[in-house]
Specification:
Elements lengths: L1 H24 L1 H16 L3 H5 L8 H7 L5 H12 L13 E5 L8 E5 L1 H22 L9 E4 L4 E4 L4 E4 L1 H8 L8 E2 L2 H4 L4 H12 L4 E6 L1 H15 L4 H4 L5 E5 L7 H6 L6 E8 L2 E6 L7 E3 L5 E7 L4 H4 L3 E2 L8 E8 L6 E12 L2 E8 L3 E2 L6 E2 H13 L4 E10 L8 E10 L4 H15 L1 H7 L9 E4 L4 H8 L19 H9 L1
Parallel strand pairs: 1-5, 3-6, 3-7, 7-8, 8-9, 20-21
Antiparallel strand pairs: 1-2, 4-5, 9-10, 10-11, 11-16, 12-13, 12-14, 14-15, 15-16, 17-18, 19-20
Helix pairs in contact: 1-6, 9-10, 14-15, 15-16
């Protein structure tokens, strides 16, 4: 049975294996083709007319005429498209918008998703992922089992008739009906809005199925899997699903979670990383024994890169793929058939090879905490701390924050060290106000904190006077050009601070 199914799957997916081979063998040709196709389509838009796409004959023209933009700078055009206006950023009407947070001036951002970007990028890359896995592991039983997935909610943007929601929800909402037979839970459960109800519904459905693969964000998936273990009174996942063999994960770093997954599995598991942002499917792990990610160069995204050194990021001087160097860090700039033109997605990558082009995600262009998909940025923290301080008559001198990673079945949380010039008149109130304000300005953090489902309340430590000064001095970092790291996605800074604070 397995052999027959895999033969059929191999035949059906052969064209997608060929696309992966094309990326490895002809990367620059792929990008030149995509560039030409996108530019031709873009001529029929308001944005294309504004920047005279019809007069662009080369990449050099494109770089000179079209600005590199952030979400905030592109937001006016995106809002026009959200209100139903045609041909703003992409020909026709943009039907969907992937909602995510992390911007500096808004609770959420809305990334345009078109029919072309769903089909040509997100869905195609998903097929390439599974085709590549089968090619790497021809003896897999995955295709005779179901894939356990976690999706978001999909709400209708009522006033203008466009839809918005998590990217995963938009994708699930647009998948053909027959994919319900390959995935669990079904579409209806996957699109439930209330996480508490959804978690229980997914778990109760999944434990009755034969699951061979998992797809999702490590933190959310871990919460779900622990619930499945609890419902079945099991110690290991393979007591529930004997043929579970692979986890396709993305969204956040998997490194802090690896031990957790190893502890709940009593058989070896394969882990394949994917780099799939709302803006586009960027890269995927194509080799079984390497965590480097192959850039998706023939799936309707044109890539540019800004070197993360000197003043390149401030100047936004981008270079094409053929000019990148191994070992260097770059901010990612993309042009897509979703209507994003020279758009900075906020991620940085480091090239591990250029033959083929493989990367690792090295961070964000700003300090952040995103250990659980919450995307806390400095502006979020500053606003929440200011709110809490104002309402408790406190004055903050220095601070830093970091994640507390999940351990065993303990949930994650954030930990902060704050040095006050004037302490709050009610410290407990300060902590609560800080947490509540973060929820109100960051929808991803709010989702993770909902009913303490993924994140417990933050821990805040009051620092001894001059702690940060002494710490910076110990690192040889005194002086006006040296700044206290406000946020960090690991515990590199906070652990030494806490140790010093205990003395």
């Amino acid at each position: 049975m397995v052999t027959l199914v895999n033969k059929i799957a191999s035949f059906v997916s052969s064209s997608y294996v060929d696309k992966i081979k094309e990326i490895r063998n002809n990367p620059i040709e792929c990008q030149h083709r995509i560039f030409k196709e996108l530019l031709e389509k873009g001529q029929k838009t308001e944005y294309g007319e504004k920047y005279k796409f019809s007069q662009i004959k080369s990449y050099e023209d494109f770089r000179e005429k079209v600005p590199v933009v952030t979400y905030e700078e592109l937001e006016p055009e995106i809002e026009k498209a959200r209100k139903g206006k045609l041909n703003v950023l992409w020909p026709g009407k943009t039907q969907w918008f992937a909602k995510s947070s992390g911007t500096t001036n808004a609770k959420s951002k809305f990334i345009p998703i078109t029919k072309e970007s769903l089909e040509g990028n997100h869905f195609t890359c998903g097929k390439m992922l599974f085709a590549n896995y089968l090619n790497n592991h021809p003896d897999t039983v995955m295709f005779t089992k179901k894939n356990l997935r976690i999706g978001g909610s999909a709400d209708l943007y009522q006033e203008y008739g466009t839809k918005y929601g998590d990217l995963s929800a938009i994708m699930i909402d647009n998948l053909p009906f027959w994919t319900n037979f390959l995935n669990t839970p079904n579409r209806e459960i996957s699109l439930l809005s209330d996480w508490n109800i959804k978690l229980d519904a997914i778990a109760k459905t999944a434990i009755k199925e034969g699951v061979g693969s998992l797809t999702g964000v490590p933190s959310w998936m871990l919460v779900l899997l622990n619930h499945c273990l609890k419902l079945t009174n099991s110690t290991h996942l393979h007591e529930i699903w004997p043929d579970l063999e692979v986890f396709f994960h993305g969204g956040i770093s998997f490194k802090p979670y690896l031990k957790n997954y190893e502890e709940i599995c009593d058989k070896p598991m394969r882990y394949y990383e994917i780099y799939n942002a709302s803006e586009g499917y960027i890269a995927m792990q194509d080799l079984p024994n390497s965590k480097d990610l192959l850039l998706m160069l023939n799936t309707e995204i044109f890539f540019e890169f800004i070197p993360m050194k000197n003043n390149s990021l401030e100047e936004r001087y981008a270079i094409p793929l053929e000019e990148v160097k191994v070992g260097e860090n770059y901010a990612v700039v993309i042009t897509t058939n979703g209507g994003l033109w020279r758009y900075m997605i906020g991620d940085t990558v480091r090239f591990k090879s250029v033959n083929p082009y493989r990367v690792v995600v090295s961070g964000r262009t700003k300090h952040y905490i995103n250990a659980f998909g919450e995307e806390i940025i400095i502006e979020n923290a500053e606003e929440a701390l200011h709110f809490a301080s104002t309402n408790t008559h406190a004055k903050i001198k220095e601070y830093t924050g970091a994640p507390v990673f999940m351990k065993d079945k303990e949930k994650g949380r954030h930990e902060w060290v704050i040095e006050f010039e004037r302490q709050p008149d009610d410290f407990e109130k300060f902590c609560n106000l800080f947490d509540e304000k973060l929820k109100s300005i960051n929808s991803d953090y709010e989702a993770k904190r909902y009913n303490n489902m993924t994140l417990n309340p933050p821990i805040i430590h009051i620092a001894n006077q001059d702690l940060f000064y002494k710490w910076m001095e110990s690192r040889g970092k005194l002086g006006g050009q040296n700044k206290v790291p406000r946020l960090c996605n690991d515990r590199e800074y906070i652990d030494p601070l806490l140790k010093m604070n205990d003395y």
